[in-house]
Please model this.
Amino acid sequence: MAAAIIEEISEFLQKGRAKNVKKLVEEALAQGIDAQEILNEGLLSGMMIVGGKFKRNEVFVPEVLVAARAMNAGVAILEPHLVAAGNEPMGKAVIGTVKGDLHDIGKNLVAMMMKAAGFEVYDLGVDVEAETFVEKAEEVGADVIGMSALLTTTMPNMQSVIDALNAKGVREKYIVMIGGAPVTESFKEQIGADYYTADATSAAEVAKAAVEAKKA
Ligand code: B1M
Model:
């Protein structure tokens, strides 16, 4: 029963049917299916299938865009259920997708999981200038700066944020975290960020542990 509705969510997401995805996610929650399971097995697995087809030129930007909208519609329903599991306020995080990059699904998930971990999250959106990361972090007194990039051509803009922090003499104030499909641990080393994580859940766990260690 749970498998059937989750499969349907994945299929409607692949077709970009946001209204159906929204309705089925609500139904799945009402059936008592765990929000994390709906996210991973329904929404993310559907998006992975779309990603594979995009790569093989079986679908194109418009199809991916409507699938992404359907994904966001489903995530919006799940968010309060995922965030409800959270703890006490734990720190402040400024997060965004770097300059030139418009991909926001993964970044939104990281923001959501960080909220669930108890962070006050300032989401700067997409195509964010290096200086904007720095200014916002300074303005709110952030603990963490989180950057997402999905394009190999925009990954270097993560370096620009670190350069801007160094230029202002404030690099050491922040825990700098990076992620996104093309980003790697060795890229993290190369640009001098503090942490790379492969997914949103581990990003939130690592951020929490790093802030706790820094405050200890
Ligand atoms: Co684009 N796109 N896209 N795209 N797109 C990719 C990234 C691509 C790999 C597809 C492909 O060719 N196989 C390819 C990049 C190739 C490369 O750089 N080598 C690509 C391309 C080429 C492009 C365009 C250039 C296409 C064009 O116009 N010709 C264009 C660029 C636009 C721009 O940004 N300037 C473009 C546009 C788009 C859409 C607008 C249509 C849409 C984005 C919609 C949106 O985000 N609102 C889109 C999508 C959806 C994708 C794919 C299919 C899916 C990305 C996604 O949302 N995945 C993608 C293919 C793929 O990745 N397999 C592709 C689901 C998401 C949950 O995963 O974002 O990886 P992800 O996030 C993960 C982890 O990476 C991690 O946590 C998340 C999950 O737990 N994570 C972090 C992410 N950020 C983190 C930060 C952290 C820690 C972890 O710390 C702070």
